[in-house]
Amino acid sequence: MGQTSLDDHIRVDKLFLLGCSYDGRAGKAYLKLLNPETQEVKLVYDESGHKPYCYVKEPIEKVRELKLPGVVELTREKKYDLLRDQEVEVTKIVASDPLAIGGSSSSIREKIKSWEADIPYHLCYLYDMRLTPGMPYILVDGRLVEPPSSSWKIKEIVEEIFGDFSDEEKRLLADWVSLLEAEQPKLKHLSLDIEVLSPVATRVPSPSKARDRVGAIALIGSDGRREVYLLKTSRANEGCEIEGCEVKVYDDEVKMLRDLFEVMGEYPVVATFNGDDFDLPYLRHRAEVLKISKDDVPISLGREGASLKHGIHIDLYRFFMNKSIQVYAFDNKYREHTLEAIAQAILGKGKVAIEKPIGELSGEELARYCFQDALLVHELLTMDDELILKLLVVLSRISRMPIEDVCRHGVSGWIKSLLYFEHRRRGCLIPRHDELLEEKGVISTKAVIEGKKYRGAIVVEPTPGVHFNVIVLDFSSLYPSVLKEWNLSYETARCPHPECRDNVVPETSHWICRKRRGIQSEIIGCLRDIRVRWYKPKSSDRSLPEGQRRWYGVVQRALKVFLNAAYGVFGFEEFPLYCPPVAESTAAIARYAFKKTVEKAGELGVKVLYGDTDSLFIKAEDEEVINELVAWAKKELKLDLELDKRYRY
């Protein structure tokens, strides 16, 4: 792979950051930068000398005595320990390559207790360089910098919508609005599907061995390309016609794959369904079996999936498998995670039904079957004005993760990445999972439901009978609001300050810090405020042009995915920043707010017919009383109570 340094690209006006990888041969990280005008991806190699590293508490002399393999440099650094609210001095171990830090039994993190040793190197590089995937950049004096933004417009939005916030909150909100309002890249993309001719009908072709021939390849591009490559066999010995599609028949499988690889190189984005586990690994290994030079194959394989040397790969199977995407982005429209089930639920159409094994299909049957699969991938990618691509770009920006990583990881991975980025930006040491549990593994309430660690939400038993004129009141973004208003974060729950111990969370023995703002509270609070006050209202504002309204809809949907999952993630034991008092306090405060609201409703003469978690089904003779209840919740609980539904009959 040829190297290109930043200095070679000074004339390029604007580039979008698509991804980041590590080149083992060069020993450097490199960026994948999209030129939106040409739709070409440039590989820009690091010239800063950045290397993989981790931190340890031992002094340099002690680390030297261990004779750890792969160590390049040892230095002392000052970091801020949020857990203990103090500055600490640590030893930074700089290594020769990522595997020296972690990934084998002889790596540094296996030999000595380390901090920040489990961050994938490409993410570590992005965090340190303050680079956000999905964002536009320009090259100035060999460095990537953010293009000038419409700061006056951002300031105008913040002052208009968040005028009642503090100056510090406005600054943070302005940063987020700038990020979300930045120009959106137009991505040229190719949807790909392959079919493999297995001689044994019951045997699934192995991607790692790739012994069987590739019988058909379907390609559908955003630029109008519609092609099927068909390998001539005893069953498929002649061409066929598919409306709106060019079918090319090949005598030679090598020639067919070479043509495919050439086409793949023309697109910055290639989309598949299960291409991480099958299509792309199979093509890569089949090329090896057929002795095609690695330099001619655009596919690169990693531990987490398949990518492109000069582009990125989007596996829609991984994307739709994400529970948060299924529930919050697509409202549970699909239940199963097959291409057939997802396409039927979302597009209203499915795969071509076949009664025979793939290897027994005629050429025309195979071509139509393969083409339909690629078409479904393409239509899923382009539906609703390319919703998925736009959603991925926004999620990439929020999580500070490349689009490929967003596809492959659940929402806990996205939130972890965002929090790690913020720790690095602020010069804070990221705590280890075990030290968090050691310091703050206290649970003070007893779970009602067997198997749970602590008490969850409460329910108001339904009032029997048939009810008319029922109003449903809903706490808007209840858990994110609680995280924000009560300053809940791993470092603020049970903080080390004696003077904060009387700031007790209701129904628990936990206390919350008064002296500093928690990092989790601040970030989730900002995202919640931006969604509730700006993007959600704008997404339904009919006075705006449809394109702009759609964009606001995409952003508010992305924020909804993030926010609705935040509480669950913070309460997930495997989450690296899992802190039981935070999860327990969030649930306790939500219960407290719910009970207080029910009590207040009773005082106002409002009849509560039913209630669950964050919703109240009520009946009131006087509408003004409902407005009074809403105003009370805002003032006393600092929570937004909204009218969600009205059942008249």
Quick description:
The protein has 649 residues and is an alpha+beta fold. It has five domains: 6-48 and 130-145; 53-128, no CATH class; 151-185, no CATH class; 189-399, 2-Layer Sandwich (Nucleotidyltransferase, domain 5); 441-647, Palm domain of DNA polymerase (Alpha-Beta Complex). The protein contains 20 helices and 21 strands.
Description:
Helix content is 39%, strand content 19%. It has 649 residues and is of the alpha+beta class. The chain has 5 domains: 6-48 and 130-145; 53-128, no CATH class; 151-185, no CATH class; 189-399, Nucleotidyltransferase, domain 5, CATH 3.30.420.10; 441-647, Palm domain of DNA polymerase (Alpha-Beta Complex). It starts with 14 loop residues before the first strand and ends with a strand.
Main features:
single chain, about 650 residues, alpha+beta, 5 domains, about 40% helix, about 20% strand
Number of strand elements: 21
Which sequence of strands runs across the widest sheet?
A: 12-11-10-9-13-16
The rounded Rg comes to: 27 Å
Instruction: Report the principal-axis shape.
Output: globular
Rounded to the nearest angstrom, the distance between the terminal CA atoms is 69 Å
Strand content: 15-25%
Largest sheet: 6 strands, mixed
The level-1 CATH class of the largest domain: Alpha Beta
Which structural category fits the helices and strands?
alpha+beta
CATH superfamily of the largest domain: Ribonuclease H-like superfamily/Ribonuclease H
Mean pLDDT, all residues: 91
User: How many independent structural domains?
Assistant: 5
Low-confidence stretches: 6-12
CATH topology of the largest domain, by name, is Nucleotidyltransferase, domain 5
**Helix count from the secondary structure assignment:** 20
CATH hierarchy: architecture of the largest domain: 2-Layer Sandwich
Percentage of residues in helical conformation: 25-40%
